[in-house]
Structures are given as C-alpha cells and as structure tokens.
Hints:
Elements: H1 3-13, H2 19-34, E1 43-49, E2 54-55, E3 60-64, E4 69-73, E5 85-87, E6 95-102, E7 105-108, E8 123-127, E9 130-132, E10 135-137, E11 142-149, E12 158-159, H3 162-169, E13 180-185, E14 196-201, E15 209-216, H4 236-250, H5 254-279, H6 289-304
Helix pairs in contact: 1-2, 2-4, 4-5
Amino acid sequence: MTWGQLRFSLQTSAPGVSLDLIDEFLNTTYEEILEATDWQGAKYHATIQTTAAYQSTTDSVTATIGSSSVTGTGTAWSSGQIGQKFYIPGDAVIYTIANVSGVGALTLDRGYEDNGVDAGGTVYSGKPYVFMQNVYTLPSDVRSIVSVLDPVSSFPLNGMSKDQLDQSAGPRTLVNDPDSYAPIEDSSESSPPALKQIEFFPPPLHARGMVVEYVHLGVFFDGTSTSGSPLPFVSSSVLLDGARAKIFLHLESALKADRYQRAFEKGRDRILLVEHAQRRVKVATRMAPRFTRHRLERASRGNNNNWGPGAGGPS
C-alpha cells in the first residue's frame, strides 16, 4: 500500500482524528519497526570512487604568506582541481582549492599561512605540492554507515566519529591507503537536509572503489508524498495496527488500543522471524582436509595414466 492508501484507511476508521496526527502515528509506527532490529532489507551498498592524490615531481608552486593566490611552474591545472585539497609538504595546514584560473594559477579558500612563523608577504618559490581529496559525498538515502571495505584486502576500515578522527589524526598532510573513516554532515541548519559525507584517513593515495554498506534511510511520509510507499519488507497490516493502537490511545479507548497494540507486536515479531530465518545459512558438512587431500593427487595421476572407469583408477 502507498502512504496515501494507508492514511485513507486510518482516516476512514477514525474520522475525528486530524490528518497531521494520523501522519505522525504512521511515521512513529514505521520508525518503531525499522528500529526493532538490524534489518537486512534496510541495508544497501554503494561504491565510493576515490580520487588519486597528485604529488608534484618536476613541477612546483610559488605561494605568498597572507595571499590566497598560488602560481605554478610546469603545471597543467584545470577546473577539475576545484574543491580538492592542497598543501605543501612540511606544512601543518591544508587548504581547499576555490578556483583555477589557468594551467598555472589557482586560488585557495584562504590566505597561505606556511607554519605561522614568518611575516606576511614572505614568498616561497619552487615548492613541491600535493593535491588530494579526503571527503566524499555519500548517497542521499544513507541513514548510518555499517562498514567500509578496503578494496585490496577486503578488510573493513576502522570506523570513527568526526571528533575521534580530528583528535587522533591531526593534520591530513599525508597521503596513503586509508585505514579509517568518519561519517560527517556538512549543511547549515538554514538549508536542510544535511549533506551526508565520509572522510577517509589517510587521504587516499590511489583511485579505488571503496564499498560502503549502509542502513537505508526509510522515506517517511511527509503528508504530500501520497504515491510513495514504505520499504517493501514492512507489512502494511502491521503499520495499520500500530497506528490504530496509537489513534485509539489518543481517543482514550484503552480496550481497542490494547487490541491493536497486541496485533502490531504479533505482526512485528512475525517480520522479525522471517528476517532471522533469512540470516541463518546452512553450512554443508565437509570432511577435514587431511581426509580429502589425497583425492586431487589420485585424480591427477589417473589423468596422466589415461585411467578410465573400471580401469583401476578413480571412477
């Protein structure tokens, strides 16, 4: 059933309840179901393609303390660098590239600082530099990250909060293969929803596909998306029972509320049983290798001798 159909069904059975309350009861019930357990049906996968860091070799930059303008010698910059991070090895500060106005001219997001000890106007020329990207946008439907796999080792990266990463990593002026990550949000309260992002540490040295497993953000009913639907594994009857329990509790009809609440809990538990059954994997019984390792040798010997069935070799 769609959200509109669910709402109409509830409205019909409780005509005196406002639509706003019905929508709230629907969403609250939906959230209870999603938070009941670690739903496999709510887990999605996405691949975040990292950008390889660029470490200068024959080219170099000139930067001036207090100036956001950086010029390059032997460089071939393009607009593709906008938004990437920039730093000069040995510095403790990284910058964001705000603009690229030519193959040898870029603008930083703030004035260059070096290490904060030299006077403004001091010029550093012929310096090596690094372009890198450590923050990437996540799919808009991410509710929370379950794991991030290293594409080479297939082992999960170490998950941290943004505060933990800031406290333990310090400056990001070192590129290598990431071993940690932190989810971050980067949107002001005046322009929701929050932009879901992930930061890798160390900043990626290579361009690789990082596989992210995440909990899907169930699309709640906003009162207008009547053609939308709950996630497919959420039963419409369970949603209706839970919402009706809340409606009749609001109407101070305890007997009806209790009846629908018990039906909701029974239906929710039924969904949980299906979920748990899908997770149970039957493992085939196998003999220990010490009992079977001779088979490959016998088969190989039989092939070399052109043995066939009934010829004294393995059949």
